[in-house]
Write a structure and sequence with these properties.
This protein has 230 residues and is of the alpha/beta class. It has helices spanning 14-22, 66-78, 92-104, 116-121, 128-135, 150-163, 173-188, 197-205, 209-215, 219-226, and strands at 2-8, 26-30, 37-45, 48-54, 82-88, 109-114, 139-141.
């Protein structure tokens, strides 16, 4: 069985893709302790069972809202084998912000580049291969409302579950120096050892309140670390 999560901005077509993948084989409940709906379903492809969870639509993982916290905790703690990042091709720039964060979280992602019909209507020409190469992530174009690209997406999910890749984005040398320094402090102090090191370091550098709280590290401490970078 492969654990798959669908993640993406609100209104990008996650639920349509979820339905196309799972058909009638789904269960609707709530996330523990909150009234946010949790949809789970099963999809069988080439004799492999995918257990799929439709995460709430979000713009980021700052965990300011309950939806962001649910999605973040699911990805970091439940560690799905594959995260299908549904991206709205007609609004690609805004959507890719979440993609960057998923990459930083070391999620094994596959992009479903959905609403390709709308992108075309708007005259956008997206070089799918180049996008995939630049991000280091497989990209499958889809028009979920017409069921287009769903079989290819299943195949990409299965493929990704086998390779278990961890894409990563390299920033400029200056920023990378800060990331390395904070990473060394995170290791030294055994901060959030169950979370991806680079993700924790980047979030601390961003002074992300939620992560600072969980890590029990204050702003002053981080500023002191930063001052050590020459
Ligand atoms: N044109 C077009 N519309 C689509 C496509 N996929 C989904 N939609 C439409 O986009 C809207 C949002 O789809 P949903 O599946 O509800 O989106 P979602 O990501 O689950 O939204 P939230 O759960 O609110 O985050 C619906 O009106 C869909 O019919 C597509 O490929 N092309
Ligand atoms: Mg939905």
């Amino acid at each position: 069985m492969i654990k798959v999560a669908l993640a993406g901005n609100p209104n990008v077509g996650k639920s349509v893709i979820f339905n196309a993948l799972t058909g009638m084989r789904q269960k609707i409940g709530n996330w523990p302790g909150v009234t946010v709906e949790k949809k789970e379903g099963v999809c069988k492809y080439k004799d492999v069972e995918f257990h799929i969870v439709d995460l709430p639509g979000i713009y980021g993982f700052t965990a300011h809202s309950i939806d962001e916290k649910i999605a973040r905790d699911y990805i970091l703690k439940e560690k799905p084998d594959v995260v299908v990042n549904v991206v709205d091709a007609s609004n690609i720039e805004r959507n890719l912000y979440l993609t960057m964060q998923l990459i930083e979280m070391e999620a094994n992602i596959v992009i479903a580049l959905n609403k390709m019909d709308l992108a075309e209507q708007r005259g956008y020409k997206i070089d799918v291969r180049k996008l995939s190469r630049e991000l280091g992530v497989p990209v499958t174009p889809t028009v979920a409302v017409r069921g287009e690209g769903i079989e290819e997406l299943k195949s990409a999910i299965l493929q990704a579950s086998k390779t278990k890749r961890k894409p990563s984005i390299r920033y400029s040398d200056g920023i990378e120096r800060y990331i390395s320094l904070v990473e060394s402090k995170v290791i030294e102090n055994s901060i959030l050892p169950d979370c991806p090191l680079r993700f924790v370091a980047i979030k601390l550098l961003e002074l992300d309140n939620e992560i600072m709280k969980e890590a029990k590290v204050g702003k002053e401490v981080i500023e002191k670390w930063i001052s050590l970078v020459s």
